[in-house]
Structures are given as structure tokens and as C-alpha cells.
Amino acid sequence: MQVTYQNQPEDIFALLHALSWRERVAAYLQVFGLGHCIWPVALLLIVLGEWAILQWIAAFVGLFLLYYTYIYARNWWQLPPQVHIIPGELQIRLTTDFLEAITQRGYSRRRWTAISKIVDLPNHLVIYVQAYRYLAIPKKYFTSPEQAQEFLARLTQLQAAALSGPMPSLDWEEFRRDFNLDQFSLIKHLQWKPNPQLSARIDTLGIDKDGTQSLPTIWGLIGQLIFPGFLALFLFFLKRSSSSDGLYTSFTLHYTLLMLAILFAFIFGMQLYTYLRYRKALARQTTLQRPNQLWFYQEGVGTITEDTLSFHFWKTLGSVEQDRDAIVLQEAPPFVYAIVPKSSFTSPEEEEVIRERMQQCYINAHETVQEAILAETANEAIVADLIDNPFRSPPTTPP
């Protein structure tokens, strides 16, 4: 059984409406993680009795939360400026062992155990294929409502059967033959051991090309408390020992030291927030499915995870970036397609060659220069770049 359809930007609403209220609230509450940046400052001001400054900060935080709430709620009835959808036709096949997808982006084969949830909406069928990754099938592409219900019933049946039956094997050679990947030019097969710490670090801090970003540690966080703690104690005892008639020392000195203490307390809060995000990302690595093998073709990239085989063309992938510890293949933001540790290469020279080849394949696939022959004679051809000319006409063949 199969269905062929196309997605429009408006289908993003189906993905949002497929979320449960618990998931919607959890996504909204993520913003409160930023409270780790604020509470050290608030605690400092409470201890020092600086209520006026605390009120200003509370007002700023309140305005920010109002604006964030407005933006979050607006997404439910207004599309964001940039919407990433899979272009062109998508074909979904239901087989006994796998859910298969054929798109202009590439091909994929997933075990049914990888399908976490199926949601039946009035105008769409939404299939959860990964955490925060969905397929939204508009029901208008079925010939009748009865066919849509039959497709849904088959989906549900195959998903339920996979939970009790043996898991089918994922074989790259079979996938390669079935999707005719032999027509492409294989450059390199890469395989590596999973590195949860590396993946969690990139998820938390992003790609670190220059090696300038470091993750905070417990001892580092404790060390960051020494200087603002000393300043806070100094200001506290100075305020307690000063007369109420004059400004215990000088107005300028007091608020200079106070602003310095606030700055260091805020930096500590930011570092604490980063550390907690890293620990959360590290714990999440056990549930994420990251590829540990990659087939590097001139035309695209194939990968395998615990439950999925896939091949994606370079034209639909993001850029190839160099991290201090890995080659990172990006997908549509904010997703990372693959993280290839540099330790999987036999030498730095091999890693550099493979990375440069990947970057060149990406550049070639995303090349946007359009040329047309405007005039042709026996001795020469006049070729013009049309990409920046808003008044260009469609090229015509000379008579």
C-alpha cells in the first residue's frame, strides 16, 4: 500500500496540531530554563537588599515572558517566515517490515518500531518518525475518505504488529540494490564508534571550529562563585557597618562594585545554564538515533542507525562544517544529519581530504549560477549569467 502527495507550507499547522497539550506546554516551559541565568543575580540583590534594582529586573523579565508568550501563541495561527518542507512529490510505502519514503530529498527505510505515534487529524495523517520529526499526509491525496481510513488502519496494524514480532534486519546492500544506488559514484565508506560526549557538546554549544568553546565543569562553576561571593560579602558588611546618614563609602564605589558583582553572578548563571543543558543533552543521547556509518557518494550521503536506513542528495542537505573533533553534516535547521569524529580517520590528512571533497560536493549541488547562450556565431558563443538580472527573459534557441 502506498500514497503519493506533496506538502505545502500550510501543512506545518498539521504538525503543530498533532502535538498533545502536554507536549505543547513542555515546549513552552523550556524558556524557563533561562531562569538559571537570573536567579543568582536575584539572590545577590535580595541578600544586599537592593529592591529597586530587583524590581527593574523583574519588570524586564516579565516583559520578555509576555513577548515570548505572544510569539509562541502566534505560531499556532500564523506561519513563521521560513518554513522547511520536503519539496516535490513524496511517496510513502507501507510494507510488512518497513515504512519507506521516496522523495526528491532521497530515500529512507524505517522499522515500524521507529514510529512512535500516528495522529489522525481532520485533514491530515501525521506520522511521528523521530522525536520532533513528522510526516504530514494531506487526506486530499487519497481518492476517497474510505481509502484514507484504510491507509490509517494499515498503519496502525503494522505499528502494533512490530511491537510483538521480531525486528527485521536492516541491510545496506539490500537497501542499495532496492533503490538503485549503484548508479552513483561511491567515494568512501566511513564507520565510527558513537561518542555521546561529542554529540552532546555539539548539541549544546554548536560547531566549534577554532576550539575556543569549552564546557563548564562543577569545579569551574564553584570557582566562578569565589569572586562575586567575596564582593557580595564585602558590600553586605560594608552596608551593615555604615551609618545611615551618609552613603557608607561612596555612592560611586558602592554601585561600581555592585554592578561588577551582578555581572559575575550573571556569567555564573549562564555557565550553569550551559552545564545543565549539556547534562540534559548527554542523557538524551541514549534515546537519539545517530548514524555510526556513512556512505559518501558524489551525489549524496547514505547513513544507517538502529532503526533507519537513508540516502539524501547533497542538494537537500545543509553545509559541511569542520568542528575541532568532527566533520559535521548539517540538515535543515536545527537538525544535524551526521557527526563524523575525526578519530575515525587514519590520519589528519585523510580527514582533510574527505572533508574538502564533501564540501566540494555540497557546493556543486547547491550551485545557482544559471547560464544561457544569448547569441552564437561560427567562432564564439556569448554566455551571460542571468541569475542577478531581474529583467531577464526565458532563453530562446537561436534560429
TrEMBL record:
It comes from the Bacteria. Keywords: Membrane, Transmembrane, Transmembrane helix. The chain crosses the membrane at residues 25-47, 53-73, 218-237, 257-276. Pfam families: YcxB. Residues 95-152 form the YcxB-like C-terminal domain. This is YcxB family protein. The lineage of its organism: Bacteria, Pseudomonadati, Planctomycetota, Planctomycetia, Pirellulales.
